[in-house]
Specification:
heterodimer, A: 161 residues, alpha+beta, DNA polymerase, domain 1, five-stranded mixed sheet, 29% helix, B: alpha+beta, Aldehyde Oxidoreductase, domain 4, 23% strand, oxidoreductase (chain B)
Chain lengths: 161, 787
């Protein structure tokens, strides 16, 4: 066991990690930040996406010791400073872009990375970018709308189509 | 104008805030002080005799607490089945024991052989590899028809064969149906497979068993759609723990889709081991493990015959289905191909004679049970496919053929036992056609052809039976439990309410929609109402959420309890205002006396109930808390019409879904936003079944699709935006909300639309293909085009 220190959502955090400890397990068990989820074991589902030094990564595919010293942003760090929902989070609520909520942390983190790269994505851009995030509840329809809305584009309101 | 609050409004979901900020509390987020972790050693062969298990090396590993095998479960019950089917001869189905850990034999890849409890999951995993198991591999049965052949290896040595049951419905109609088919002007026959699926909620299953030595009580935290059912099954039939010493908690659950209904061995194991070890035991399923231990869905092989007279009226339907049970009977498994399937074989059509034969078969595969729709997708698929095939054979329009045979008078008694209360199948078909611009299809097809693509239009109807279920009816059909629902409404002194419901939300948004209903009834703000679910310690005994039953059955219980609250509150108000009880009205949260200007606020009356200084104590008990149990007197029958346009690349067989439209009749709708979300999700799973998903075994029973690398989940790029409509509402006549349920419709109605559409596309290219089995992968479509 070695102590690993990262800046997580702006705060310096330290917890022990074995050589084999994955970043997602370090966050969930080491820091007890359980917002980041594990939905598969083959890096396919994207429920565990976080940002490491500004880049979206599947935290199930990164060893905690590998990213010692990194700046990490998780779903717990996406709200505004006053605690209100951030733009993407609010759009997900406004457009019913989540049901069971399990894939949601990864979806929001991937959406944030997309909008940083491409501030006004087309529907096709959103669908392509989210290929690495599986949702079983929504059929993606409202997730796509939420991401488009979060980018400031006009989308049809919920329950009025 | 859309409403802002109450029934019919789409307020933002209150549960979203915790999910969007990482504050959801899922079972894997729960750690109990001092907990140990369990990892199961699972069989890597489909069928084999366990000759020996040597756990000594595993036990010697530092950090291993204890290794369990079947011998530790002597005297403990097997995992029970909740439904008994009676076969054509009047005999009960064959029902093998389902042990917690394999006894003597392993019967499918993933069957648990041993369990290692250790200080950490990684130590337990390591120790599993140190267990020496000597298994004599036996020939496996995978194919259902082969499993029923003479001399086939038996999955269970103590059963007479691999046949669980041979069921006929309606058995008395068998000869009449045969005669109608023999004398029909036209018979269309179709053989098809309803592919095996894995439900795949994004949250894998988790169980945490805990034991309190001070009062000898057990607690299980689990990823369940129905914690009370788990408490009853596990407590009464497996571990012998009375309900008052057993609490089951299903906190935030990350999707269910049916596969989290069932009582699983891992739940019983963790509860049992925690008591043995007097410390909590936690199990977190990996995704690969989920593929080989979550109950699968569908897996039917069917032959259907549709008989028509010379005027194209349907005269009879006969089906023969082989339904895979897997290696053991999961909780609801026997009911899925029978009562949830045979009763829907009339569809939306007035076919006077129907006969359904189902042979349920044990194989060396993971148990198969209810998955979103459960039996109804299988019924809809074969019926809507055979009608499309008949239309093609007869050279008539598939919409016209359906319309000609629509049921138009309600209530309608079908020849397969159920009575449809309401419906308007013309209305949903008309609405659908208005949504899809069918007249413009020819031009769109031409445009596709100009790009070298084949375009097809697939249309179908569906009907389902939801709101499961009238207890007296399902009791006669073999259910070993009643399927009512419950609610307790507790009004607090200052006027806020807590509704404790036996329903369970795992994505459906009950905390929002249930509050809308109660707020509407009383006329107070939704934020004064808390919806509590998922914990047997603070909810009345209820049957949980599945079969699109939450609002129709659980919501009705909540309405009944709230009605009792209002009735009692009116009595209190009448006393305080010195008026006759019959003159009291409750409107917008105020009690008034008819014909006077006297009034009392809701909160004045609730306070009087708990501070009863001026209170009718001689007539009424203080307090304001009521419970209701609601048992429906019929199923509900959501129905609708679906259509899609697809494009097939003739060079590769690749199918692209260009559009999908759904016109549903769900009766009254409480929250349109949530309802539409449910339809979207159902459509994605149905389209997934039709084009992508397949749980595959090889001939030795090896599971070939045990990860997301091999099992093709629908992703964002596979699906179009959906057009959905629920304006054609014929309210249910027998529940107080007039609601029918919307959770499964999309998954039921969409697979035939896709297949009909692809075959329509191929036909436009001169490929008259009778059927392609799902999933319609490029390889299968391309091969079908080659003849």
């Amino acid at each position: 066991m070695t102590n690993v220190t990262m800046t997580v959502n702006g705060k310096s955090r330290t917890a022990a990690a074995e050589g084999r400890t994955l970043l997602v397990d370090w966050l969930r068990e080491g820091l007890r930040m359980t917002g980041t989820h594990v939905g598969c074991d083959t890096s396919q589902c994207g429920a565990c996406v976080v940002h490491v030094n500004g880049v979206a990564m599947k935290s199930c595919s990164v060893l905690a010791q590998e990213v010692d010293g990194a700046e990490v942003t998780t779903i717990e760090g996406m709200a505004n400073a006053d605690g209100s929902l951030g733009t993407i989070q609010q759009a997900f609520q406004d457009y019913h872009g989540l049901q069971c909520g399990f894939c949601t942390p990864g979806m929001v983190m991937s959406a944030a990375a997309l909008l940083k790269e491409n501030p006004r994505p087309t529907e096709a851009d959103v669908r392509h970018y989210l290929e690495g995030n599986i949702c079983r509840c929504t059929g993606y329809h409202n997730i796509v709308k939420a991401v488009m809305a979060a980018s400031g584009q006009q989308v049809a309101p919920v329950a009025a189509e | 104008m859309p409403k802002d609050t109450g029934i019919g409004a789409s307020p933002k979901r209150r549960e979203d805030v915790r999910f969007l900020t990482g504050k959801g509390r899922y079972t894997d987020d729960i750690n109990v002080a001092g907990q140990a972790h369990v990892v199961f050693l699972r069989s890597d062969v489909a069928h084999g005799r366990i000759k020996s298990i040597d756990t000594s090396a595993a036990e010697a590993i530092d950090g291993v607490v204890r290794v369990f095998t079947a011998k530790d479960f002597e005297g403990v019950g097997g995992i029970p089945c909740g439904w008994q089917i009676t076969d054509r001869q009047g005999n009960p189905m064959q029902e093998p024991k389902h042990p917690i850990l394999a006894e003597g034999k392993v019967r499918h890849v993933g069957d648990p052989i041993a369990a290692v409890v250790a200080e950490s999951a990684s130590i337990a995993r390591l120790a599993c590899e140190a267990i020496e198991v000597d298994i004599e591999a036996l020939p496996a049965v995978v194919d259902m028809k082969a499993a029923l052949s003479d001399g086939a290896p038996k999955v269970h040595d103590d059963l007479t064969s691999n046949l669980c049951y041979d069921w006929g419905f309606v058995e008395e109609n068998r000869d009449a149906v045969a005669e109608a088919i023999n004398s029909a002007a036209h018979v269309t026959t179709l053989e098809l497979v309803n592919n095996r699926l894995v439900a795949n909620p994004m949250e894998p299953r988790v169980a945490v068993g805990d034991f309190a030595a001070h009062d000898q009580s057990s607690t299980l935290y689990t990823t369940s759609q129905n914690p009370h059912v788990i408490r009853l099954l596990m407590g009464a039939f497996v571990l012998g723990i009375p309900e008052h010493k057993l609490r089951v908690v299903a906190p935030d659950v990350g999707g269910g889709f049916g596969t989290k209904i069932f009582h699983y061995a891992e739940e019983a194991f963790c509860t049992f081991a925690a008591k043995q070890l007097e410390r909590a035991v936690k199990w977190t399923c990996t995704r690969s493990e989920a593929f080989m231990s979550d109950a699968h869905g569908r897996d039917h092989v069917t032959k259907i015959e549709l008989a028509l007279d010379a005027d194209n009226n349907f005269t009879a339907i006969r089906t023969e289905t082989y339904a895979n049970m897997g290696a053991y009977l999961s909780t609801f498994a026997p009911s899925v191909p029978t009562w949830l399937h045979g009763t829907l074989m009339a569809g939306n059509y007035k076919t006077p004679l129907v006969y359904v034969n189902v042979k349920a078969v044990f194989t060396n595969t993971v148990p198969v049970d209810a998955y979103r729709g459960a039996g109804r997708p299988e019924a809809t698929f074969q019926l809507e496919r055979v009608i499309d095939k008949a239309a093609r054979e007869l050279g008539v329009d598939p919409v016209d053929l359906r319309r000609q045979n629509f049921i138009r008078e309600f209530p309608y008694q079908t020849p397969v036992a159920v009575e449809y209360d309401t419906g308007d199948y013309d209305a949903t078909m008309d609405k659908l056609l208005s949504m899809i611009d069918r007249d413009g299809f020819a031009a769109r097809r031409k445009e596709s052809e100009s790009r070298g693509k084949l375009r097809g239009l697939g249309i179908n109807c569906y009907i389902e039976a939801c709101g499961i279920a009238p207890s007296n009816l399902v009791g006669q059909l073999g259910a070993r439990a009643g399927l009512y629902e419950s609610a307790t409404v507790r009004v607090n002194a200052t006027g806020g309410l807590v509704v404790m419901t036996g329903s369970h939300s795992h994505g459906q948004g009950h905390e929002t929609s249930f509050a809308q209903v109660v707020a509407d009834m009383i006329g107070i703000n939704e934020d004064q109402i808390e919806i509590v679910h998922g914990d047997t310690a603070n909810t009345p005994m209820g049957m949980g959420t599945y079969g699109s039953r939450s609002l129709a059955v659980g919501g009705s219980a909540m309405v009944r309890a709230t009605e009792k609250i209002i009735a009692k509150a009116k009595k209190i108000a009448a006393h305080i205002m010195e008026a006759a009880e019959g003159d009291i009205e409750l409107k917008e949260g105020r009690f008034t006396v008819a014909g006077t200007d006297k009034s009392l606020a809701w909160g004045d009356v609730t306070l009087a109930a708990y501070v009863p200084h001026n209170y009718p104590l001689t007539d009424l008990e203080p307090g304001l808390e009521e419970t209701a149990f609601y048992d429906p007197n019929n199923f509900t029958y959501p129905a609708g019409a679906y259509a899609c346009e697809v494009e097939v690349d003739p060079e590769t067989g690749q199918v692209q879904v260009l559009s999908f439209a759904a016109a549903d009749d769900f009766g009254n709708v409480v929250n349109p936003m949530i309802v539409e979300g449910q339809v979207h999700g159902g459509l994605a799973q149905g389209i997934g079944q039709a084009l992508l998903e397949n749980c595959a075994y090889d001939e030795n029973g090896q599971l070939l699709s045990a990860s997301y690398m091999d099992y093709a989940m629908p992703r964002a790029g596979d699906l179009p935006m959906f057009q959905v409509d629920h304006s054609c509402a014929t309210p249910c006549t027998h529940n107080p909300l007039g609601v029918k349920g919307c959770g499964e419709a999309g998954a039921i109605g969409s697979p035939p639309a896709i297949v009909n559409g692809v075959l329509d596309a191929l036909a436009s290219g001169g490929h008259n293909v009778g059927h392609i089995n799902m999933p319609l992968t490029p390889a299968r479509v391309w091969a079908a085009m080659q003849g």
